[in-house]
Every structure is written in structure tokens, then in C-alpha cells.
Amino acid sequence: THPDCSVVLYFQEQEAECLEIIRSERQTSAPPGSPGQPGCLTEWDGVSCWSALPVGQSRVVTCPDILHIFKKSNVLIQRNCTELGWSFPSPPYYNACELEAIGINNDTEAKASYFVTMKVLYTCGYSTSLAALFLAIGIFSCFRKLHCTRNSIHIHFFTSFILRGAAVFIKDAVLFSDESVDHCTMSTVNCKAAIAFFQYSILANFYWLLVEGMYLQTLLLLTFTSDKRYIWWYILIGWGVPMLTVCVWVVTRLQYDNHGCWDDYTSLYWWVIKAPILLAIFGNFLIFLNVTRMLAQKIRSPDISKNYKQQYMRLTKSTLLLIPLFGVHYVVFALFPEHIGVDARLYFELVLGSYQGFLVALLYCFLNGEVQAEIKRNWGKWQSSMESNVFNLATQDFTA
To answer: What number of H helices and E strands is found in the chain?
Structure first.
């Protein structure tokens, strides 16, 4: 959400609390200002809530306490309760409450240009990633010799990236397609569903990366055990855990915090999503350390042949590169509140993050020696087949 939405939400919360006081006063004993009780009723003036008072008394309030918007001020704003009702605020809000100096970063046009540039960059990144991922899945699916547990896990990993890219485009289309809509207060079923799908795709992405690390560790630990027996456990972790987490989060938001479009990261219930992501990153980090240790032991072992050493290196180089690459900056940002380092966070998560799918397809598919060999072999067979067909046609023409 845009940082300025915090101002809108602050006043909405203050207004809701004030209206609740007004409703409770109407249901209880007659407050000052009601028939037979001369005075002024509780009133919300758009900025502050003025509690009920008898005629002749006055009440004072301070300026709204909103960080980065209003300067801290000791000026008190007063209103008197007269026989005609509440007097005007004295001094007026615009004199008593001074806004923070508007710098370059707060300039509306500069912000708009910045966000448009960001959107263009991550749209190009996700489009490139989606094209590469679809091509990689097509390659793994078409060639029969590439059908194995390892590549099946890669396909699920690619699919999680495809869902992530699609979720970003869907979220943009639902939340930001209409510029006339107030995004700070929008609360529709469509936008909540888009955010829920987006959170699911993010979780699935992290948990399939965790599955990649777990599978690699299983290969190194259980060399002579069939890996097919674990595939359903991997699927359950990669797709099932994110689904369960998002369902809990949706129910929690519906029950306790059903405000806005659920895209506010200041909510305490955001930890229902954030905690499992941090757990996956931490698990990957431990796997990274353990796999590095086991790989070093196996390569140094005199009992392992050269072919096996090369196989271990081929299996681990991509995953060992991806685990720190996908987790380090998320851990760094997780240590700080959501409003700290917003520009850097957006750049890493949107711009650089949009090209992660392309990088995964490149490492696991396009630069895979096994895939390259299979493509070359089939290309050679196709060329031989074409040459044979041409020769047969030429021979038929000659004999005819």
C-alpha cells in the first residue's frame, strides 16, 4: 500500500471510535445536548472527536499524532459549548497543526514517475521469466529421457514462479486498473481474492525452493534409496503448507481484521504469512550449510569415483547458488519494520525478484548439460530424418 494510506486509515479508525461513542451515548442515559439536557452532543468534525459537554464549558485537543505528516506541536485547539452548539475550533487546524516540510521524495509527480518506472521494469522482468519458464517446462515435458523425479520437482518449482508472475499481473489489474478508485479504502471481494492468491503464490515459491534443497539433501544422504517414494511428501510441502497457511490467514482476516484490501503489512495478522516464509528461508539456510558440508566430505572421500564426484557437483551447483540468492535479502529486510527502506525493498522484491524465474529456468534447464545433450541428440535425429526424406523423394523422382 502507498505510505499515504496510513493517514487515511488513521482518520478512519478515529472516526469509527467516535461514532461508536455516539451510538453508545444514544443507548444509555441522556447525554448533555439531548432533550432536557442542555449542552453539546459528542461530535466528529473530520479531524478530532469532541466529547459531549454541558453549555458553558470547553474542551481542548491536540493535533493528530501522525508520523511524517504533522510536526510535533504543543498548541491546544479549543472548542466551546454554547447554546447554539459547538463553536469553531480555535485556533483553526490549519494554523495549529503544521505539516512536515515536503521534500523531493514526497513530491507527487516524482512519486508517480517512480512507481510507473518500477511497474515497467517488473512487468518486463515477469514477462521474460514467464516466457522462459513455459519454454523450460515444455522442454522437460517433451523429451522422454528427461522424465525423472528431479525434473518433476523442477517443473513444480517453475510452476510456482509462473503463479507468482501471474499473481502480480492479476493484482495490478484488480487493484490499480481504475485510477478513480480510492485504493486506501477499497475493500472488495475481488481485491481480497487477488491478494490471497498473491500471498499463496509467494508462499508456494518459497516452499518449493525449500523442497529443492530438501531433495538435494536426500540425494546426498540416501544414495541408494529410490527418490520416487518421497515425491508426494514434496508435493504436500510445496503446495499443501502454503494452502493451509493462506486458509488460516483468510479466516483470521475475515474474523478479526476485515478492513481494506488485506494488502496492509502493518497488521499484526501479517505474521501468519510472514512467519512461515521466514521459517522456509531459515530451513533453506540450514540445508545450505549441511549440503555444503556433505558435499565437501564426499568430494574428499577416496572411495568416491570421479564420475560420482562430477554427478554430485552437477546436482548441487544450481541449488547451492539459488538458496542464498533467494533468501539473503529477505532475511535482511525481515529484521526491519515494513516502513524502513521501502525504496530498496521495492527494488529487490519487484525489479530483481521479477527476473528470478528467468534465472531459475536458465540454471535448471537451459544451462543443464543433460538437457543440452538431449536437445542436440533430437536435433541430430530430426536433421537425419529430414535428409532421409529428401533423399527418398529425390530417389522416387529419379526412378519415376
So the answer is: 13, 7
Q: Which helix (H) or strand (E) holds 293?
A: helix 271-300
- What does the alpha-carbon distance between residue 355 and residue 122 come to, in Å, rounded to a whole number? 8
Residue 391 predicted with pLDDT over 60: no
Closest to 201 (Cα-Cα) out of 139, 117, 130: 130
Angstrom distance (rounded) from CA 315 to CA 323:
14
The amino acid at residue 110 is: A
Average confidence (pLDDT) over 95-111: 65
DSSP SS3 for 212:
helix
* 8-state DSSP, 105: G
State residue 105 phi and psi, 5-degree precision.
-70, -20
Identity of the amino acid at 50 = W
Contact criterion met (CB below 8 Å) for 281 and 331: yes
The DSSP output letter for 217 is H
137-163 mean pLDDT: 89
Domains along the sequence of the chain with CATH: 3-96 (4.10.1240.10), 106-373 (1.20.1070.10)
Which SS3 state, helix, strand or coil, does residue 40 take?
strand
Residue 380 phi/psi, 5° resolution? -65, -40
70, β-bridge pairs: 99
Q: Using CA atoms, how far apart are residues 122 and 105, in angstroms rounded to an integer?
A: 21
| pLDDT tens digits, 303-353 | 666 666 666 666 566 556 666 555 555 666 656 666 566 677 777 777 778
In our burial notation (b when 16+ CB lie closer than 10 A, e otherwise), range 96-112 reads bbeeeeeeeeeeeeeee
- State phi, psi for 57 to the nearest 5 degrees: -105, 165
* Residue 79 parent element (H or E): strand 77-82
CA separation for the pair 118, 248 (Å, rounded): 32
pLDDT digits (tens, 9 = 90+) for 129-144: 999 999 999 998 888 8
In this structure, the strands spanning 85-86 and 77-82 are: antiparallel
Residue 116 has pLDDT above 80, yes or no: yes
Structural element, H or E, at residue 397: helix 369-399
Higher pLDDT, 226 or 174: 174
